[in-house]
Fold this sequence. Notes:
The structure is a single chain. By secondary structure, this protein is mostly helical. The protein has one domain (2-76). Helices cover 53% and strands 10% of the residues. It has helices spanning 2-9, 20-33, 57-76, and strands at residues 16-19, 41-44. It has a two-stranded parallel ribbon. Helix 2 links the parallel strand 1 (16-19) and strand 2. The radius of gyration is 14 Å and the shape is flat.
Amino acid sequence: MLDTINIERKGKPAAVIGLDKLVNTTGKAMARAQGYPGLEFAVFPYAAAEWGSAASEEELKLRAESVVTQIRRILTGVE
């Protein structure tokens, strides 16, 4: 998180990838404390029951593709 903010301060685009639980608590609070309340996050959903063998390969692939799409939008502004 802090690395991303420091990179952004230097005028370079950067993206944070985080689990939704962390982003919605610690991540947003840290961004506000560092003066970046609007920092965008690429969010990977966390559901303990779905990790590991409980999540199919296809489900994990779809989640990963969603994160890649979010990163592309954050870095380029293009959906």
